[in-house]
């Protein structure tokens, strides 16, 4: 069972015009520095953000270590959160996540009729591997989508991706790795890339309810 509303982390105005269900990646929980920075940043920009944990990650908090649940269980957990949030009368609900969380969101966005989809650091392939994960669903996605990706992300960077075939927009974080951290020689900072990523995501989400 997914942890329900009493275990969620919430950021942003409770009466925001759009809610964003934000899922964590495979190895870090919902309150990791990246998740917290993005959630708080989106909240400060007028987006209501809800973070939750998949069952395997919630179990880790009790000392039960285990790998991520399989995709059907992850999708079921995520969908349950969307349904519970809508039952609260949240208005339009967008879905997304960091890395694996974004991949899970991409598989359910159309089915739950999400207002939008936003992924931060989409895991197009395992690092060091040449085989790419299937992206057929990303080429056919009907939900308006945005993928925020570091240009040198080992899970898929700018020089490797055929982005023209993807339905979601791509926002590139210059010289960013999987967490958007740039190298010192780039002249950029992690904080700059994080702020730009949050700005792009917030603006994209707000356009889903504009006018």
The helix/strand class is: alpha/beta
Q: Summarize the amount of helix as a percent range.
A: 25-40%
Strand content: 15-25%
* CATH topology heading: Rossmann fold
Known CATH architecture: 3-Layer(aba) Sandwich
Assembly category: single chain
- Please, what is the average pLDDT? 93
Main pleated-sheet profile: 7 strands, mixed
Structure description:
The chain has one domain (5-207): Alpha/Beta hydrolase fold, catalytic domain (Rossmann fold), CATH 3.40.50. It is 32% helix and 16% strand. It contains six helices and seven strands. The protein has helices at 33-44, 55-60, 71-87, 100-108, 136-140, 190-207, and strands at 9-11, 19-23, 48-52, 93-98, 117-120, 145-150, 169-173. Strand 4, helix 4 and strand 5 (117-120) form a beta-alpha-beta unit. Helix 1 (33-44) crosses helix 6 and helix 3 crosses helix 4 (100-108). The longest helix has 18 residues, at 190-207.
In short:
The termini are far apart. The longest helix has 18 residues, at 190-207.
